[in-house]
Design goal:
It is built from five helices and no strands. It has about 150 residues and is mainly alpha-helical. It has one domain. α1 runs antiparallel to α5, α3 packs antiparallel against α4 and α4 runs antiparallel to α5.
């Protein structure tokens, strides 16, 4: 169980990296004009690889949650973490991904770019909040986990 907690915690912490970066830069990026914003968006090329980490966080937290069924002190926080991680995916597929498609990953600046920017930026900010909640919930779960003592 310790190894599973380790993988869930590490992958959840790593999943927070990109969304945390988006949240940290949100205020500054919302002040940029269209041409500056389009240039800045190019720094995200290759960030899709964080999907591997996100999948690892979802999978390990799901397995952990299933293994903790029947042990309610640790199960509840693990379930909250899992739901938060699922929530990040709902946000991505419902809000972020459609904007990526419409802007061709911000290589094309459509007429409604301001509205699209807001959807893109705020969906990442909301995902960051959910990732923090997931990591915090996993920490609570590990603190409440069943302790197996070695025989003396």
């Amino acid at each position: 169980m310790s190894g599973l907690y380790f993988v869930a915690l590490l992958s959840s912490a790593l999943a927070l990296v990109p969304t945390g970066a988006h949240l940290a830069e949100l205020a500054s990026k919302m002040q940029l004009g269209a041409s500056e914003y389009l240039v800045v968006q190019q720094i995200y090329r290759g960030w899709a690889l964080f999907g591997i980490v996100t999948f690892g966080a979802l999978a390990s937290t799901c397995v952990l949650t299933l293994r903790l069924r029947g042990y309610s002190p640790a199960f509840g926080p693990a379930l909250v973490a899992l739901l938060c991680l699922v929530g990040t995916q709902v946000l991505f597929w419902a809000f972020t991904f459609p904007v990526n498609q419409e802007t061709d990953n911000w290589t094309v600046m459509p007429a409604a770019w301001g509205m699209l920017r807001a959807r893109w930026e705020y969906s990442h900010a909301a995902a960051a909040v959910l990732n923090v909640a997931a990591l915090g919930s996993l920490i609570v779960s590990v603190l409440r986990r069943p302790i197996v003592r070695a025989p003396s």
